[in-house]
Structures are given as C-alpha cells and as structure tokens.
Amino acid sequence: MLEMRDVTFHYTDGTPVLEHMNLTIGTGEFIGLGGRNGCGKTTVTRLLMGLEKPVSGDIFLDGKRINDEEAAARSPYIGYVFQRPERQMFRPTVRQEVAYGPEQLGRSREEVASAVTAALQATGLEHLAEAYPPNLNRGEKQRVAIASAIAMHTQYLILDEPTSGQDSADKKSLMALLSRLHRDGLTILIISHDMDIFAEYCQRVIVIGHHTKAFDGTPQDLFTKREDLYELGLNRPDAVTLSQAVAGLPYCKSVDEFTAAMLQRLGGK
Ligand SMILES: Nc1ncnc2c1ncn2[C@@H]1O[C@H](COP(=O)(O)OP(=O)(O)OP(=O)(O)O)[C@@H](O)[C@H]1O
C-alpha cells in the first residue's frame, strides 16, 4: 500500500498547495484522482513518485517511511505516465527505451530482452519496436511509457490526464489496455477531468478540494450523493444522470449500461 499521512506541501513561492493531506492506494485498486484545475493532483503524484518532498508529513510504502527515497529508487515499484510522455523518453528506439529501466536495475541481457518482449506484447507495441519514439503519436508514446513500467514489473502505475485531447477511439483503446493490466494485477491511479472514466473504470475516486482531500469513495457515491460536484470542479456523467432520471432504473456507470438497462425495461426490443 502507498500512503500519504498528514502531508503539507508548497512550492518555493510558499503558496499553499496541500495541507494535512491523507490518502491510501491499496495494491490492486483502480483509483481516479480528480478536482479543479490547479488543486494539486499532479503535485500529489509527484510527492508519491519522490519528485517533490513533503514540507511536513510522511509517505509510506507498505508501512515503511520513504520520504528520503529519491525518485529513481521508487521507479522499480511506481511507474509514471506524464501528461507529455515524450519528456520521459531519450533513447533512439522504442525497444531500447523500454529496456532502460530493467538495465538500470542490473538485470542480465536475457532478462532484459524477455522483459522488453513481454512489455511490448502487453501494450501492443511489437510493430513499433524499432521506431524512433519522438515520431510516435501521443497514444503510442503513452504506451511506450506504460511498457517501460511493465518491463520494470512495477506494482503501481500513475497516469496524469492520459486521455485529454484524445478522440473517443484512442480513449477507449487506452482504457481497455489499462483495464487488462489492472486485471493482471497492476494498481492504477489515474488523474482525470473526464468523469465518464471515473464512473466506468474506477473502483474508488479521490477528490482534492481546498488544499486537501474532499472526497474518497466509490464513483456511485460521488455522483449520486454529493451535491457539491460543481464546487469540486466535477460534473455528473450523462449515463448517471439518465439512469437516475428514469424511475426504477439501477445506477448505470456507462451509456452502454444505460442502453442495456433501457432495452431490458422495454422487453429487449
Ligand atoms: N513547479 C512549480 N512551482 C510553483 N508552483 C507550482 C509548480 N507546479 C505547480 N504549481 C502550482 O501548484 C498548484 C497545484 O498544481 P498541480 O499541477 O499539482 O495542480 P493540478 O490539480 O494537477 O492542475 P491541472 O488540473 O491544471 O493539471 C497550482 O496552483 C500550480 O500553479
């Protein structure tokens, strides 16, 4: 489990970003992290990654305090997909890029080769193994970053707004990949402004409000019980609004689920 206990943080200008923030990420979870622009979502993940250090409070991994562990030391267990994934790539081919992590861990040449092959396969990148990473499109670059994490056998994968600016086919394909990796045991934390993703894919959603956690629970509770979604910078997904508007219909987490529920109501016609 990754944990933030009573973390307070500000950047060098001293403006408060997080105050007394607590959160847990249990292994095997699929969690969404949301909130208004600038509320501190990326900062939370940078603190978990070790790219920033708390001003006060602690970060734990499985009960061990890791405040002093640098980002490089955390990379074997936390993978990260940046908003602009090209910023984390610097090798001439996809294969070499994905090999970088296991090589740094001192794995043998055979171990590296088999970890890279498996990671490229898992992310559907075999056909791009010899491609030059800067020439790839954003979705492909994200897959390279995900493959790099998988090749390290990381337990946690953090993604910062991976679907922003993507069309719905790319979004569906990325979310299908993440769902598959999650089923295979990867723990996922995804920052997003897309409420459909929270509703359809996440088991738990954490929302940052005014410098600290404002909600932590299921998407169903968030979208059906909270009256302050607008103040939190969120909105209710269409599927939830529609399913709540039809008396007797169950909570629906996607438009497909809503359509199926309506068809069943109409006798399958
Ligand atoms: N390197 C930095 N130096 C100073 N202030 C920063 C730095 N990075 C972020 N901030 C500020 O810290 C606050 C939190 O930023 P952060 O990027 O964590 O928010 P966010 O919730 O991820 O935003 P968004 O949804 O727009 O991506 C913002 O006010 C931002 O301007």
From TrEMBL:
Q: Which SUPFAM superfamilies match?
A: P-loop containing nucleoside triphosphate hydrolases (SSF52540)
Instruction: State whether keyword Hydrolase applies.
Output: no
Q: Which GO terms describe its molecular function?
A: ATP binding
Task: Please name the InterPro entries in this protein's record.
Answer: AAA+_ATPase, ABC_transporter-like_ATP-bd, ABC_transpr_CbiO/EcfA_su, ECF_ABC_transporter_ATP-bd, P-loop_NTPase
Which residue ranges run through the membrane? none
Instruction: Tell me the keywords, alphabetical order.
Output: ATP-binding, Cell membrane, Membrane, Nucleotide-binding, Translocase, Transport
Residue ranges of domain ABC transporter in the record: 2-235
Superkingdom is Bacteria
Pfam families tied to this protein: ABC_tran (PF00005)
Q: Which family does it belong to?
A: Belongs to the ABC transporter superfamily.
Q: What is this protein called?
A: Energy-coupling factor ABC transporter ATP-binding protein
Species the sequence originates in = Megasphaera hexanoica
Q: Lineage from the top down?
A: Bacteria, Bacillati, Bacillota, Negativicutes, Veillonellales
